[in-house]
Specification:
alpha/beta, Protocatechuate 3,4-Dioxygenase, subunit A, nine-stranded mixed sheet, two-stranded antiparallel sheet, about 10% helix, globular, binds fe (ii) ion, signal, protocatechuate 3,4-dioxygenase activity, ferric iron binding, Protocatechuate 3,4-dioxygenase beta chain, Intradiol_dOase_C
Length: about 220
């Protein structure tokens, strides 16, 4: 069975129907953010299922999510044919990257990065897991009393067929209490924080949770 995750059934009616009511707000551009040190060294394979590393291999640990949404421009028009690359930590907050200097357990069954392309409606989809948070030693802000850590997040770069790449990272509303102390997010306005935060809805019956995130570039 082919592992690639297809659009269609995975984009539940709720997420598509919800787009119209949320559209005006979500047509506000998503705040950009640096790629950070864990950016893939080369373009990932065309693979949108990060929950396994091989066809019939074991499943990665962690809470599975179907991450989907649309890439839109500021006029709320879908951006078709845009390349979407994501990279993230495993459930233990570890990256699979030469710049990962911590020595903790790293999930061998997780793919860590993926790549897909938007369809005619600007839609994209990945099957992945909610990453773990991780410490960032030496990056705390003592004046604000912040703990030096990153809340769970997924990095992404969207490259339209015409135009410049757009890079940022998305957070999860599951962790709103933690998000406001994240080293990247805490400096943002509440509106910016909202634009950078994906909603997560229980998938039910052991299915992956539905994580909806529109990317306005
Ligand atoms: Fe990160």
């Amino acid at each position: 069975m082919k592992r690639r995750v297809f659009l269609g059934n995975l984009l539940v009616a709720g997420s598509v129907a919800g787009a119209s009511s949320a559209l005006a707000e979500q047509c506000l551009k998503v705040p950009a953010s640096g790629a950070g040190p864990m950016k893939p060294l080369q373009k990932p394979l065309w693979e949108n299922d990060l929950t396994r590393t091989s066809e019939d291999g074991p499943q990665a640990a962690g809470m599975r999510i179907t991450l989907s949404g649309r890439v839109l421009n500021a006029a709320c028009e879908p951006v078709a044919g845009a390349e979407v690359v994501i990279w993230q930590a495993c459930v233990n907050g570890m990256y699979n990257h030469p710049n990962e200097h911590r020595n903790d357990w790293r999930d061998p069954n997780f793919r860590y990065e993926g790549r897909t392309v938007t369809d005619e409606q600007g839609r994209y989809v990945f099957l992945t897991i909610v990453p773990g948070s991780y410490p960032v030693p030496g990056k705390s802000d003592p004046g604000l009393g912040l703990v030096s850590f990153r809340a769970p997040h997924i990095h992404f770069t969207v490259t339209p067929s015409e135009g410049e790449p757009f890079t940022s990272q998305m957070f999860f509303d599951l962790f709103d209490d933690m998000n406001k102390f994240d080293l990247v997010l805490y400096k943002r306005t509440l509106q910016e924080q909202k634009l950078l935060t994906a909603s997560v809805i229980d998938g039910g019956d052991g299915e992956p949770a539905q994580c909806q995130f529109d990317i306005v570039v």
